[in-house]
Design goal:
Helix 2 crosses helix 4. This protein has a single domain, classed as Winged helix-like DNA-binding domain superfamily/Winged helix DNA-binding domain (Arc Repressor Mutant, subunit A, Orthogonal Bundle), CATH 1.10.10. The protein has a three-stranded antiparallel beta sheet with strand order 1-3-2. The chain is an alpha+beta fold and 101 residues long. It is elongated. It is 59% helix and 14% strand.
Length: 101
């Protein structure tokens, strides 16, 4: 994974609303959720949600697919795995962290 992609992903997740949106989408799984359900679940107005989803998409953390009149957002599990792998290999020298340390 390129360093710039890592920086972009981490920067996108370093904002409370975007982190909440991403966590919700991860819990929803690969089928994702319609944007309206995301906004409703988190109490985010449509315009605000649109901005944050755009930032997550630009960072490659979420994918969007149109289904009829709805936009379905899902997490990019591949990029998420690459990000964790990059951090583990390059920041932790491959050492598995143990809980509580």
């Amino acid at each position: 994974m390129e360093k710039q992609a890592v920086i972009s992903a981490l920067a996108a997740l370093a904002q409370e609303t975007r982190l909440d949106v991403f966590r919700l989408l991860v819990r929803a799984g690969p089928d994702g959720l319609p944007a309206g359900e995301v906004g409703e679940a988190l109490g985010i107005p449509a315009a605000t949600l649109s901005f944050h989803l755009k930032e997550l998409r630009n960072a490659g953390l979420v994918c969007c697919e149109r289904q009829g009149r709805s936009k379905i957002y899902s997490p990019a599990f591949g990029l998420m795995a690459d990000l964790v792998r990059y951090l583990t290999e390059n920041c932790c020298r491959g050492i598995q962290a143990t809980r509580g340390t």
